[in-house]
Amino acid sequence: MGNFSDVVIVGGGPTGSFCALNLAKRNINVTVFEEHSEVGVPCHCAGHLSINGLKTLGLYPLPKDVVENTFRGTRIYSPKGLEFSIRFPSPMTCVVDRVLFDRHIAQLAEKVGANFLLKSKVERLTSEKGSIKGIEVNTGGNFLKIPCKIVVDAEGTSYKILRQAGLCPPPKNSLITCINTVIENVKDVEPDTVEVFLGNTYAPGFYAWLIPLGEEKAKFGLGVKMGNPKTFLQKLKHKHPAASKKLSKAKILREAYHQIPLCGPIRAYCSGFLAIGDAAAQVKPTTGGGVIFGLHCAKIAADVTIEAIKRDDYSSKILSTYQRRFMKLLGFDIRVMKKIRTFLNEMPDEKLDEIISFCRKTRMDLELSDLEEVDFQGRALLTMWRKPRMLAMLTYFLLKGLT
What we know:
alpha/beta, FAD/NAD(P)-binding domain, D-Amino Acid Oxidase, Chain A, domain 2, 3 domains, seven-stranded mixed beta sheet, six-stranded mixed beta sheet, 12 helices, 19 strands, globular
Protein backbone atom coordinates (compact mmCIF):
# COMPACT_ATOMS: atom_id res chain seq x y z
CA MET A 1 0.00 0.00 0.00
CA GLY A 2 2.31 3.10 0.08
CA ASN A 3 2.79 5.04 3.27
CA PHE A 4 -0.35 4.54 5.34
CA SER A 5 0.64 6.40 8.49
CA ASP A 6 3.78 7.70 10.10
CA VAL A 7 2.78 5.90 13.29
CA VAL A 8 0.65 2.81 13.85
CA ILE A 9 -0.82 2.17 17.32
CA VAL A 10 -1.98 -1.33 18.25
CA GLY A 11 -5.00 -1.04 20.56
CA GLY A 12 -7.62 1.64 21.15
CA GLY A 13 -7.60 1.64 24.96
CA PRO A 14 -6.88 4.84 26.89
CA THR A 15 -3.09 4.68 26.50
CA GLY A 16 -3.26 4.00 22.77
CA SER A 17 -5.80 6.77 22.21
CA PHE A 18 -3.92 9.23 24.42
CA CYS A 19 -0.70 8.58 22.52
CA ALA A 20 -2.61 9.16 19.28
CA LEU A 21 -4.07 12.38 20.69
CA ASN A 22 -0.63 13.74 21.55
CA LEU A 23 0.75 12.78 18.13
CA ALA A 24 -2.16 14.13 16.09
CA LYS A 25 -2.09 17.45 17.98
CA ARG A 26 1.37 17.93 16.52
CA ASN A 27 0.35 17.01 12.98
CA ILE A 28 1.71 13.47 12.97
CA ASN A 29 -0.23 11.07 10.76
CA VAL A 30 -1.30 8.32 13.16
CA THR A 31 -3.70 5.37 12.89
CA VAL A 32 -5.05 3.29 15.77
CA PHE A 33 -5.98 -0.31 14.98
CA GLU A 34 -8.58 -1.74 17.37
CA GLU A 35 -9.60 -5.39 17.02
CA HIS A 36 -13.06 -4.95 18.54
CA SER A 37 -16.09 -3.32 16.90
CA GLU A 38 -16.25 -0.58 19.57
CA VAL A 39 -13.65 1.34 21.52
CA GLY A 40 -13.85 0.48 25.22
CA VAL A 41 -15.51 -2.91 24.71
CA PRO A 42 -15.04 -5.35 26.36
CA CYS A 43 -14.47 -3.54 29.65
CA HIS A 44 -12.22 -5.21 32.23
CA CYS A 45 -11.07 -2.49 34.64
CA ALA A 46 -13.03 -1.01 37.55
CA GLY A 47 -11.99 2.52 36.51
CA HIS A 48 -11.03 3.90 39.91
CA LEU A 49 -8.74 6.87 39.15
CA SER A 50 -7.12 9.72 41.02
CA ILE A 51 -8.58 13.15 40.29
CA ASN A 52 -5.21 14.85 40.68
CA GLY A 53 -3.66 12.40 38.21
CA LEU A 54 -6.32 13.19 35.61
CA LYS A 55 -5.89 16.94 36.19
CA THR A 56 -2.13 16.67 35.68
CA LEU A 57 -2.77 15.02 32.32
CA GLY A 58 -5.30 17.66 31.27
CA LEU A 59 -8.22 15.22 31.36
CA TYR A 60 -10.25 16.56 34.28
CA PRO A 61 -13.01 17.57 34.61
CA LEU A 62 -14.45 14.72 32.56
CA PRO A 63 -17.89 14.77 30.91
CA LYS A 64 -20.60 14.16 33.52
CA ASP A 65 -21.78 10.91 31.96
CA VAL A 66 -18.25 9.46 32.22
CA VAL A 67 -17.91 9.93 36.00
CA GLU A 68 -19.98 7.45 38.00
CA ASN A 69 -19.02 8.69 41.48
CA THR A 70 -16.37 10.63 43.41
CA PHE A 71 -14.78 9.72 46.75
CA ARG A 72 -13.33 11.55 49.73
CA GLY A 73 -12.95 8.57 52.01
CA THR A 74 -11.21 5.19 52.21
CA ARG A 75 -12.02 2.37 54.62
CA ILE A 76 -9.47 -0.44 54.96
CA TYR A 77 -10.43 -3.77 56.55
CA SER A 78 -8.14 -6.33 58.13
CA PRO A 79 -8.76 -10.06 57.55
CA LYS A 80 -10.79 -10.39 60.76
CA GLY A 81 -12.85 -7.27 60.07
CA LEU A 82 -11.05 -4.47 61.93
CA GLU A 83 -11.48 -1.21 60.05
CA PHE A 84 -9.34 1.87 59.57
CA SER A 85 -10.89 4.92 57.91
CA ILE A 86 -9.40 8.02 56.29
CA ARG A 87 -11.40 11.11 55.33
CA PHE A 88 -10.09 13.77 52.98
CA PRO A 89 -11.23 17.40 52.89
CA SER A 90 -12.18 17.14 49.19
CA PRO A 91 -12.74 14.34 46.64
CA MET A 92 -9.50 12.46 45.94
CA THR A 93 -10.62 9.84 43.44
CA CYS A 94 -13.40 9.08 41.03
CA VAL A 95 -14.78 5.98 39.39
CA VAL A 96 -15.45 6.19 35.67
CA ASP A 97 -17.52 4.23 33.22
CA ARG A 98 -14.56 2.68 31.44
CA VAL A 99 -16.39 2.27 28.14
CA LEU A 100 -17.32 5.97 28.05
CA PHE A 101 -13.90 7.02 29.40
CA ASP A 102 -12.06 5.12 26.67
CA ARG A 103 -14.40 6.53 24.01
CA HIS A 104 -13.95 10.05 25.34
CA ILE A 105 -10.17 9.92 24.87
CA ALA A 106 -10.57 8.32 21.44
CA GLN A 107 -12.98 11.09 20.42
CA LEU A 108 -10.51 13.74 21.59
CA ALA A 109 -7.87 12.08 19.41
CA GLU A 110 -10.18 11.86 16.39
CA LYS A 111 -11.07 15.55 16.69
CA VAL A 112 -7.43 16.53 16.14
CA GLY A 113 -6.91 14.15 13.23
CA ALA A 114 -6.08 10.66 14.54
CA ASN A 115 -7.51 7.77 12.51
CA PHE A 116 -9.25 4.80 14.15
CA LEU A 117 -9.88 1.53 12.34
CA LEU A 118 -12.20 -0.83 14.23
CA LYS A 119 -12.54 -4.58 13.70
CA SER A 120 -8.90 -4.49 12.62
CA LYS A 121 -6.76 -7.05 14.40
CA VAL A 122 -2.99 -6.68 14.14
CA GLU A 123 -1.72 -10.21 13.57
CA ARG A 124 2.00 -9.62 13.29
CA LEU A 125 4.79 -7.15 12.89
CA THR A 126 6.82 -6.78 9.72
CA SER A 127 10.53 -6.11 9.91
CA GLU A 128 13.53 -5.43 7.74
CA LYS A 129 17.18 -5.71 8.72
CA GLY A 130 16.28 -6.07 12.41
CA SER A 131 13.97 -3.04 12.53
CA ILE A 132 10.18 -3.00 12.82
CA LYS A 133 8.75 -1.54 9.62
CA GLY A 134 5.00 -2.06 9.91
CA ILE A 135 2.19 -4.48 10.63
CA GLU A 136 0.01 -7.11 9.04
CA VAL A 137 -3.62 -6.52 9.96
CA ASN A 138 -6.75 -8.64 9.55
CA THR A 139 -9.76 -6.52 8.62
CA GLY A 140 -12.68 -8.90 8.38
CA GLY A 141 -10.72 -11.63 6.62
CA ASN A 142 -8.68 -9.29 4.46
CA PHE A 143 -4.97 -9.27 5.35
CA LEU A 144 -3.16 -6.03 4.66
CA LYS A 145 0.47 -5.06 5.08
CA ILE A 146 0.70 -1.57 6.53
CA PRO A 147 4.12 0.14 6.45
CA CYS A 148 4.95 2.83 8.99
CA LYS A 149 7.86 4.54 10.70
CA ILE A 150 7.08 3.45 14.27
CA VAL A 151 4.72 0.88 15.80
CA VAL A 152 3.38 1.71 19.27
CA ASP A 153 2.13 -1.35 21.14
CA ALA A 154 -0.87 -0.65 23.40
CA GLU A 155 -2.26 -4.20 23.24
CA GLY A 156 -2.57 -4.70 27.01
CA THR A 157 -1.48 -7.93 28.65
CA SER A 158 -1.70 -10.37 25.74
CA TYR A 159 1.98 -9.60 24.92
CA LYS A 160 1.61 -11.14 21.47
CA ILE A 161 3.00 -8.13 19.62
CA LEU A 162 5.61 -7.45 22.30
CA ARG A 163 7.04 -10.97 21.83
CA GLN A 164 7.14 -10.52 18.06
CA ALA A 165 9.25 -7.41 18.60
CA GLY A 166 11.76 -9.59 20.43
CA LEU A 167 11.06 -8.11 23.85
CA CYS A 168 10.44 -10.11 27.03
CA PRO A 169 7.00 -9.89 28.66
CA PRO A 170 6.63 -9.68 32.45
CA PRO A 171 7.47 -12.94 34.26
CA LYS A 172 4.43 -15.13 34.84
CA ASN A 173 4.90 -15.06 38.60
CA SER A 174 4.37 -11.28 38.55
CA LEU A 175 0.87 -11.55 37.06
CA ILE A 176 -2.25 -11.49 39.16
CA THR A 177 -5.69 -12.46 37.90
CA CYS A 178 -8.55 -10.10 38.74
CA ILE A 179 -12.30 -10.42 38.71
CA ASN A 180 -14.32 -7.23 38.35
CA THR A 181 -18.06 -7.28 38.94
CA VAL A 182 -20.97 -4.88 39.14
CA ILE A 183 -23.36 -5.85 41.92
CA GLU A 184 -26.70 -4.69 43.32
CA ASN A 185 -28.37 -4.98 46.77
CA VAL A 186 -25.33 -3.62 48.57
CA LYS A 187 -26.05 -2.57 52.16
CA ASP A 188 -24.50 -0.21 54.73
CA VAL A 189 -21.88 1.57 52.61
CA GLU A 190 -21.05 5.25 52.59
CA PRO A 191 -21.60 6.57 49.06
CA ASP A 192 -18.38 8.61 49.00
CA THR A 193 -16.08 5.98 50.55
CA VAL A 194 -14.11 3.23 48.79
CA GLU A 195 -13.61 0.05 50.81
CA VAL A 196 -10.51 -2.16 50.67
CA PHE A 197 -10.13 -5.67 52.10
CA LEU A 198 -6.66 -7.01 52.90
CA GLY A 199 -5.35 -10.48 53.65
CA ASN A 200 -4.21 -13.67 51.96
CA THR A 201 -7.25 -15.50 53.31
CA TYR A 202 -9.49 -13.59 50.89
CA ALA A 203 -7.17 -12.19 48.20
CA PRO A 204 -3.77 -13.94 48.24
CA GLY A 205 -1.11 -11.72 46.72
CA PHE A 206 -3.34 -8.67 46.28
CA TYR A 207 -6.53 -7.21 47.83
CA ALA A 208 -10.27 -6.74 47.27
CA TRP A 209 -12.27 -3.57 46.62
CA LEU A 210 -15.81 -2.27 46.94
CA ILE A 211 -16.54 0.93 44.99
CA PRO A 212 -20.04 2.38 45.60
CA LEU A 213 -22.02 3.59 42.60
CA GLY A 214 -25.20 4.67 44.37
CA GLU A 215 -28.70 3.13 44.46
CA GLU A 216 -27.28 0.07 46.28
CA LYS A 217 -24.98 -0.75 43.38
CA ALA A 218 -21.20 -1.07 43.46
CA LYS A 219 -18.16 -2.32 41.63
CA PHE A 220 -16.77 -5.27 43.55
CA GLY A 221 -13.67 -7.24 42.76
CA LEU A 222 -10.34 -8.67 43.82
CA GLY A 223 -7.09 -10.04 42.48
CA VAL A 224 -5.22 -13.23 43.33
CA LYS A 225 -1.76 -14.51 42.56
CA MET A 226 -2.97 -18.09 42.43
CA GLY A 227 -6.30 -19.85 42.46
CA ASN A 228 -9.69 -18.94 41.03
CA PRO A 229 -10.54 -15.29 41.78
CA LYS A 230 -14.28 -15.97 41.66
CA THR A 231 -13.94 -18.59 44.40
CA PHE A 232 -12.17 -16.06 46.61
CA LEU A 233 -14.75 -13.40 45.74
CA GLN A 234 -17.54 -15.65 46.97
CA LYS A 235 -15.58 -16.45 50.11
CA LEU A 236 -15.10 -12.74 50.85
CA LYS A 237 -18.75 -12.03 50.08
CA HIS A 238 -20.06 -14.66 52.50
CA LYS A 239 -17.32 -15.24 55.09
CA HIS A 240 -15.50 -11.95 55.73
CA PRO A 241 -16.75 -10.47 59.04
CA ALA A 242 -17.35 -7.01 57.57
CA ALA A 243 -17.96 -7.71 53.88
CA SER A 244 -20.57 -10.40 54.52
CA LYS A 245 -22.81 -7.90 56.32
CA LYS A 246 -22.83 -5.66 53.26
CA LEU A 247 -22.76 -8.21 50.47
CA SER A 248 -24.40 -11.46 51.56
CA LYS A 249 -27.54 -10.67 49.54
CA ALA A 250 -25.77 -8.86 46.72
CA LYS A 251 -26.41 -10.06 43.18
CA ILE A 252 -23.75 -10.00 40.47
CA LEU A 253 -25.04 -8.20 37.38
CA ARG A 254 -21.94 -8.67 35.23
CA GLU A 255 -18.39 -9.84 35.63
CA ALA A 256 -15.10 -9.66 33.76
CA TYR A 257 -11.58 -11.00 34.21
CA HIS A 258 -8.17 -9.62 33.39
CA GLN A 259 -4.53 -9.89 34.37
CA ILE A 260 -2.27 -7.21 35.84
CA PRO A 261 1.56 -7.26 35.92
CA LEU A 262 3.02 -6.12 39.25
CA CYS A 263 6.73 -6.43 38.39
CA GLY A 264 7.19 -2.81 37.36
CA PRO A 265 8.10 -1.61 33.84
CA ILE A 266 9.93 -3.91 31.43
CA ARG A 267 12.12 -2.93 28.49
CA ALA A 268 9.66 -1.22 26.17
CA TYR A 269 11.55 -0.28 23.01
CA CYS A 270 13.50 -1.63 20.07
CA SER A 271 14.22 -0.35 16.60
CA GLY A 272 10.97 1.01 15.15
CA PHE A 273 8.89 -0.05 18.17
CA LEU A 274 7.62 1.28 21.52
CA ALA A 275 5.29 -0.33 24.09
CA ILE A 276 3.03 1.61 26.45
CA GLY A 277 0.63 0.96 29.33
CA ASP A 278 -0.01 -2.60 30.48
CA ALA A 279 1.94 -3.87 27.47
CA ALA A 280 5.03 -2.32 29.11
CA ALA A 281 3.92 -3.21 32.69
CA GLN A 282 3.67 0.49 33.56
CA VAL A 283 1.49 -0.38 36.56
CA LYS A 284 1.55 0.48 40.26
CA PRO A 285 2.72 -2.67 42.13
CA THR A 286 0.71 -1.68 45.22
CA THR A 287 -2.78 -1.14 43.78
CA GLY A 288 -2.46 -2.50 40.25
CA GLY A 289 -3.59 0.84 38.85
CA GLY A 290 -2.18 1.36 35.38
CA VAL A 291 -4.27 4.06 33.72
CA ILE A 292 -2.57 7.18 35.11
CA PHE A 293 0.97 5.80 34.73
CA GLY A 294 0.11 4.48 31.27
CA LEU A 295 -1.23 7.86 30.13
CA HIS A 296 1.92 9.62 31.35
CA CYS A 297 4.05 7.12 29.43
CA ALA A 298 1.86 7.43 26.33
CA LYS A 299 2.61 11.14 26.26
CA ILE A 300 6.35 10.49 26.66
CA ALA A 301 6.14 7.92 23.83
CA ALA A 302 4.48 10.54 21.61
CA ASP A 303 7.21 13.09 22.39
CA VAL A 304 10.01 10.62 21.61
CA THR A 305 8.25 9.47 18.45
CA ILE A 306 8.00 13.04 17.19
CA GLU A 307 11.69 13.61 17.87
CA ALA A 308 12.55 10.41 15.97
CA ILE A 309 10.42 11.47 12.99
CA LYS A 310 12.13 14.86 12.88
CA ARG A 311 15.51 13.10 12.79
CA ASP A 312 14.24 10.40 10.45
CA ASP A 313 15.96 7.95 12.79
CA TYR A 314 13.98 5.09 14.33
CA SER A 315 16.90 3.13 15.71
CA SER A 316 16.92 1.45 19.08
CA LYS A 317 19.51 3.97 20.23
CA ILE A 318 17.20 6.91 19.52
CA LEU A 319 14.07 5.23 20.90
CA SER A 320 15.86 4.21 24.11
CA THR A 321 15.26 7.82 25.18
CA TYR A 322 11.67 6.74 25.85
CA GLN A 323 12.74 4.18 28.47
CA ARG A 324 15.05 6.63 30.20
CA ARG A 325 12.37 9.32 30.37
CA PHE A 326 9.58 7.20 31.74
CA MET A 327 11.87 5.55 34.26
CA LYS A 328 13.01 8.98 35.40
CA LEU A 329 9.35 9.78 36.01
CA LEU A 330 8.30 6.47 37.58
CA GLY A 331 11.44 4.69 38.72
CA PHE A 332 11.70 5.80 42.34
CA ASP A 333 8.01 5.33 43.05
CA ILE A 334 7.96 1.92 41.37
CA ARG A 335 10.87 0.74 43.54
CA VAL A 336 9.14 1.91 46.72
CA MET A 337 5.82 0.36 45.71
CA LYS A 338 7.45 -2.98 44.88
CA LYS A 339 8.90 -3.10 48.38
CA ILE A 340 5.47 -2.27 49.86
CA ARG A 341 3.84 -5.00 47.77
CA THR A 342 6.46 -7.56 48.86
CA PHE A 343 5.96 -6.50 52.48
CA LEU A 344 2.18 -6.93 52.27
CA ASN A 345 2.40 -10.26 50.46
CA GLU A 346 4.73 -11.71 53.11
CA MET A 347 2.74 -10.38 56.05
CA PRO A 348 0.65 -13.08 57.80
CA ASP A 349 -3.00 -12.19 58.20
CA GLU A 350 -2.76 -11.97 61.98
CA LYS A 351 -0.07 -9.30 61.66
CA LEU A 352 -2.23 -7.34 59.24
CA ASP A 353 -4.90 -7.37 61.94
CA GLU A 354 -2.33 -5.99 64.39
CA ILE A 355 -1.24 -3.26 61.96
CA ILE A 356 -4.80 -2.07 61.37
CA SER A 357 -5.35 -2.05 65.13
CA PHE A 358 -2.16 0.00 65.59
CA CYS A 359 -3.27 2.53 62.97
CA ARG A 360 -6.62 2.92 64.72
CA LYS A 361 -5.11 3.38 68.17
CA THR A 362 -2.53 5.95 67.03
CA ARG A 363 -5.07 7.90 64.93
CA MET A 364 -3.03 7.58 61.78
CA ASP A 365 -6.01 8.97 59.89
CA LEU A 366 -5.09 12.44 61.22
CA GLU A 367 -1.73 12.27 59.42
CA LEU A 368 -3.10 10.75 56.22
CA SER A 369 -6.12 13.02 55.80
CA ASP A 370 -4.01 15.76 54.19
CA LEU A 371 -2.45 13.37 51.67
CA GLU A 372 -2.49 14.95 48.22
CA GLU A 373 -0.74 12.35 46.05
CA VAL A 374 -2.01 8.79 45.59
CA ASP A 375 -0.33 7.84 42.31
CA PHE A 376 3.34 8.58 43.01
CA GLN A 377 3.34 6.83 46.36
CA GLY A 378 7.10 6.88 46.94
CA ARG A 379 7.12 10.67 46.78
CA ALA A 380 4.06 10.82 49.01
CA LEU A 381 5.89 8.80 51.68
CA LEU A 382 8.91 11.11 51.45
CA THR A 383 6.75 14.13 52.19
CA MET A 384 5.01 12.48 55.15
CA TRP A 385 7.59 10.36 56.94
CA ARG A 386 8.78 13.21 59.18
CA LYS A 387 5.37 13.45 60.83
CA PRO A 388 5.46 11.85 64.30
CA ARG A 389 2.65 9.39 63.71
CA MET A 390 4.01 8.42 60.28
CA LEU A 391 7.45 7.81 61.73
CA ALA A 392 5.91 5.66 64.45
CA MET A 393 3.91 3.72 61.87
CA LEU A 394 6.94 3.10 59.63
CA THR A 395 8.95 1.93 62.63
CA TYR A 396 6.11 -0.36 63.65
CA PHE A 397 5.84 -1.77 60.09
CA LEU A 398 9.57 -2.41 60.04
CA LEU A 399 9.47 -4.26 63.35
CA LYS A 400 6.52 -6.34 62.18
CA GLY A 401 8.36 -7.19 58.99
CA LEU A 402 11.47 -8.22 60.87
CA THR A 403 9.57 -10.44 63.29
